[in-house]
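Query structure, 77 tokens:
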């Protein structure tokens, strides 16, 4: 493996930066973007899932909180 000097690495950064942006532009042309109907549908699924998980964890938190509270009450008597 060749190790370049610091000066050579610093001098080569504009070329590497230009290559990076050219590659980025090429990749962005290959991207297939979803249509508006797909975006709305997946957004609704994400929002519904977030609310379902929030409700689930709220119930689990309430049940575990009460159970732990009863355990503490039992041992502090």
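Result returned for the query:
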């Amino acid at each position: 493996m060749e190790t370049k000097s610091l000066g050579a690495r610093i001098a080569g950064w504009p070329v590497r930066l230009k290559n990076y942006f050219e590659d980025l532009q090429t990749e962005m042309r290959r991207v297939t973007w979803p249509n508006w109907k797909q975006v709305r549908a997946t957004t609704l699924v994400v929002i519904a899932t977030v609310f379902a998980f929030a409700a689930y964890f709220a119930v689990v938190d309430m049940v575990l909180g009460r159970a732990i509270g009863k355990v503490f009450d039992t041992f502090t008597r």
